[in-house]
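User: Before I run my own analysis I want an independent prediction to cross-check against. Here's the chain; please return only the structure tokens and, at the end, one sentence I can use as a sanity check.
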Amino acid sequence: MNQKGAGGLNEAMLCAGGTLSLPDLTIGARSWRIIEMALLYVAAPFAVDAAVHDGGIPVFIALIPVLAIILIVLLIDRTFSLRRELTRGFSLAQLGSILLVFAIGGGIVATYVAEYLPSLFLEFPRNRPETYQRIMLLYPLMSVIAQELVYRTFFFHRYGLLFGRAWWLAILLNGALFGLGHIVIGTPLAIYGSAAIGVLFAWRYAIARSFWAVFIEHTLWGWLVFTIGIGRFFFTGVGILSWR
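Assistant: Structure tokens:
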């Protein structure tokens, strides 16, 4: 197994938790993975955006081909174990870090909305409690799992080796691509906000290499967005994710 220990942010930390071995990539293989990354994380979001907004296709339907390709690649890849990825835990220290960052960062965001956007603050749970409850229940299952498999598990397993020791570049690029992936929503806040929080998720995954650690962190921030009243800026206006 060509993999170093998990003692810090080094080359080994840029793989997924379910990575069994790190293959030696030829120049041709590296070039193809760069092209592949551009197709899946840059071209595909624009294609999905066109299908949703120009073709009127529900966003979940438009995303199926991309999700299917990524899942198939993971399942047939002998250097990756989905079972290992989904059974890998994380430490109490990591949980404490997740909760501390959320308490501080989430508190700042909630305070800002309450102060400067008072008409939106808590309007969703107050005005539509039943819909709010359904979203809080379904969001982790219907959205977070797929997003984390695509943007953290697959990205770090498939493309982590491309960055060598430039772990910071992998994390920043992952955040930027995560923001671009939200272009279908059609609001600047969805793109830039997702890019910023995507950097946090990418850093968390690079450190913990735990799907469930970043799943919990992603869920907490998503719940916050819907609770404090800015969820409308993170919903697409077409298809089954329509906010209105």
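Sanity check: The two ends are 51 Å apart (CA to CA).
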